[in-house]
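Structure tokens please, single chain.
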Amino acid sequence: MNILTEKLKENTDPVYREFSKKLIPDTAYEIMGVRTPLIKKIAKSAVLDGTYKTFINEKHFYYEEFMLHGLILGLLKENFNEITDLFEQFLPMIDNWAVCDSTVAGMKIFSKNKHEIFNKIKIWLSSDRPYTVRVGIVSLLDFFTTPEYTHEILTLLDGVCSDNYYVNMAASWLLSVLLIKDYSVAVQAFVKPRYNKFIHNKALQKATESFRLTEDKKSYLKSLKIKN
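Here you go.
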């Protein structure tokens, strides 16, 4: 057993395990019950002392191992190509929303290499693996929700056709943020509906829950809900 897996096992919490099973029902892997701040602490230590090198090349069996792997990638200081290669090798291993979102959030190097990452996102969005698609959507959400990207993001989402709940939720979340940040452009995608009913209505719901839109805009968005 890898030393990092041993460290994870030393920090298991049976109560938190049961909570996590309910929170992350989409993983096929066993959950130990290790709190995320502790996993982050182990990740930082592993990068500092180099013990991550064998770990990320070994087969994982627990949800927390995948979470640790993803968090490690965000802490690496190698060059961009090396890190993105490791990231893309990890993509097929992601099987739940929590590892997806935590991994992407930690990839600060994406914000420093936007052109290259945006091109990679286009490829990820066309994947037949739902969590690779979610990685693409969440990457857009975390690093590209500025007006200069709104039109292209709306077009990219046209090509996302999935019956996966977590893909559709991520798309709804992204669209709701675009409605808040670039209302006049994003709202056009709802005047003439472009996305499936779930994405369309959930995005409107999330946007109308924001304090950053006026009541007039919220009222109009509510009127755009697909009713049947």
